[in-house]
Amino acid sequence: MPTIVTLPSPGIIKAPTEPTDLLVRFPEQTQSFLEQAQHAPSFLMRRVPRNIRHERAFPNDGESSFYYVAYERAENLIREWEKLVAAINQAGGKVGVLVPQQSTGPANVAVQDTAVILYDVHAAPHSSRGPATILLANFSQQKSDRADEPHHIKELYKQIGSTVIDPPAEAELECGDLVVFGNKILVRQPDAESRINRAGLQYLRDGAEPLGYSIIPIEMHGSLHLTHACTWAGFSKTGAPRFVIDTRLLTDVSQFSSHGFETIDVASCASKHSANVLLVGDFLIIQDEDLRLQELLIRAGFDQKKLMPVLWETMASNDIGFTCCTVTV
Fold first, then answer.
1. Rounded to an integer, what distance in angstroms lies between the CA atom of residue 219 and that of residue 205?
2. Domain ranges of the chain
3. Domain at 20-328: CATH code
4. 191-245 tens-digit pLDDT
């Protein structure tokens, strides 16, 4: 397991399996990471603070099913985060850690919610892509414990993209409700339980469609993000886009087949987060303790050698998936 350290100066990486800290005061380090990201699957993450505050789950209001995440075993969370970093590196990926971090709450873990990084898909293939456009999230004051996300997150993202777009005040969007693959974006259809509203969907369209992305709304139910109901799992042997899905959370599975997508339904798995997998190149990071998930993936044609089980018990028990901890660069 790698030792996770904060780099004392730009350009120093003590081991190839350690993540690169991206600091505002170390622009050279950030540039080096972005250059590597042109040639390898790369992700932004934020560390689990060792002084993370403990919060008991409780309803946000009398009716909402949303709850604040309870972090009761901080050491387990840190250990599982480090295992995910190691797995990404083992699969040939790169990790850049967004720092500094001021909050000791959930905002430092579920970095996926904060923004989505897009490129002009008309202009160039992934290997020679142009500058990034970053759409920042806007958290619901009523349905999210992320509404006080520190303002410095915008300054951090300015290092990554040439264009950083602020959402309008009326737009609610958490980027855990997006699944980006190729030139398409699946997005949760706004509903009474979602943390995206119609203005948030329009904000996404306005930012993504001019870059060449097609927006595909997906209906689901419950207060979890879309990435708990479906995640991108590459292409099948027939060349069709493939998704790991959980029909317990989806309204209608034909939403996928109507677009020519293939699906692997993991609703029979014990974990309610089994569909939250992370694709890193040709490898698929999955929950270590979910043997049923491995069986379903192998039956669907996945090479067992390309499955990377990672212990994820404490994170999953707090409704945090692999994709929640990452922003794809």
1. 17
2. 20-328
3. 3.75.10.10
4. 998 999 999 999 999 999 999 999 999 999 988 899 999 999 999 989 999 999 9
